[in-house]
Amino acid sequence: KKKGNKKPDKIHGQKAGLKGEAAQYITRAKALTKLQVSLADFRKLCILKGIYPRDPKKKNEGKDKTYYHVKDIAFLQHEPLLNKFFELKTFVKKFKRFIGRKEFDLAKRKEENKPVYTLHHLVRERYNSFEDALGDLDDAI
Questions:
Q1: CA torsion 111→33→28→54, rounded to 10°?
Q2: Mean pLDDT score across all residues of the chain
Q3: At what angle do helices 39-49 and 28-35 cross, to 10 degrees?
Q4: Model-level pTM?
Q5: Continuous segment of H or E residues that includes residue 24
Q6: Which of 5, 6, 41, 91 has its CA 20 to 30 A from that of 98?
């Protein structure tokens, strides 16, 4: 037999932030744990994907926090750049370990196979046609 009832009842009601508008937003700290990336990588990813923090009406976690839309975070979860950031982080760890052990030949070999990430899929995603890209370039000039 299960102990505890997860469903709301007439006496206890629904927990705050599980339903309605408050459930549509997530704090930055929760987003970082969900994506399992560092703050710097999260910022890079948000800038590249064009995702900005939102200002919800009901802030159930606190007024001093930064909120993102749940759909935006789900959108980031399927981003191939996440895997590349992870590969780059593991490369740096291994490279530093080889340098620390003074195994320079292994470090050099490791550096030749350094993971590289490209952003062409993001450009294609943001600009469907070449004319759109040129139009946005005119705005910058």
A1: 100
A2: 86
A3: 90
A4: 0.75
A5: none
A6: 41
